[in-house]
Amino acid sequence: MIRQERMTVVSQREIAKDIFEMTLQGQIVQEMSPGQFVHIRVSDLLEPLLRRPISIANIQKEAEEFTIIYRAQGRGTKVLSQKQVGDEVDVLGPLGNGFPVEEAREGETALLVGGGIGVPPLYELSKQLNAKGVRTIHVLGFQTEEVAFYEEEFTKLGETYYVTDDGSKGFKGFVTDLLNELNPDFNIFYSCGPLPMLRALASMYEEKKGYLSLEERMGCGIGACFACICKTEEGQEKDYVKICSDGPVFEKGVVKL
Ligand SMILES: Cc1cc2nc3c(=O)[nH]c(=O)nc-3n(C[C@H](O)[C@H](O)[C@H](O)COP(=O)(O)OP(=O)(O)OC[C@H]3O[C@@H](n4cnc5c(N)ncnc54)[C@H](O)[C@@H]3O)c2cc1C
Ligand code: FES
Description:
CATH superfamily of the largest domain: Nucleotide-binding domain of ferredoxin-NADP reductase (FNR) module
Distance between the termini: 29 Å
Bound molecules: flavin-adenine dinucleotide, FE2/S2 (inorganic) cluster
Oligomer: single chain
Order of helices and strands: EEEEEEHEEHEHEEHEHEEEE
């Protein structure tokens, strides 16, 4: 069930250049699953008015806490990065349909491919896959070393590779270049990141089962304003989907990339 709650900031730290990790406490954590997102009103003032959509990166139900990882780039996310421990934040969520963890079976291998600020939702996904006995391989792409994060966290969960545009950390190039070299053996893939990366993966692994999380500019976040519509591939039930309420995660082949 979608709810609006004033959640309390329990930690906030900069984990890479302009990349912040914020943990919030509140009751809606109980409803969260990997790949879903929250819609955050960053200020009680009139400006900035629109909420910002941010993925759920880590869920700790017992403590009623969840974590987001976000890049402070524009007006809204910069305001968010100034919040202090004890401040309250207006959160709407959890929103959307997340990654189907049940599609990977115990003993199978899942390939998780992330790019930039598409990496955060893969962390909770990997935790839940590992908890049910699925082996995970993580391939994480960033522009440079200074904006890369969570190496220790992902490495604890499975085989982890970093890829940077300039080679400052790990492999130099695109995640697809590394995947061509690695040629990993896996049963299913999950991915979140920039559209060109998702497009390249979908055509590279045409014969595999895969799920892609899409990012689109959003208004309401709950399916009411049509700000986030995308065309579907031919043969689909609907001609378009709303990323916020039908997604953000779709099976490969549903949305025209
Ligand atoms: C489902 C979903 C999950 C996301 N998860 C994350 C995450 O985990 N971490 C993270 O850093 N970012 C994430 N993003 C992107 C994030 O929402 C934007 O970077 C952020 O809204 C930009 O706001 P701003 O205040 O920095 O920029 P501004 O330029 O001030 O934003 C102006 C307006 O444009 C919208 N906007 C700008 N860029 C984007 C974008 N790329 N996607 C959607 N709306 C945008 C904002 O929501 C706002 O309404 C996600 C986006 C979506 C749709
Ligand atoms: S953001 Fe309003 S319909 Fe998706």
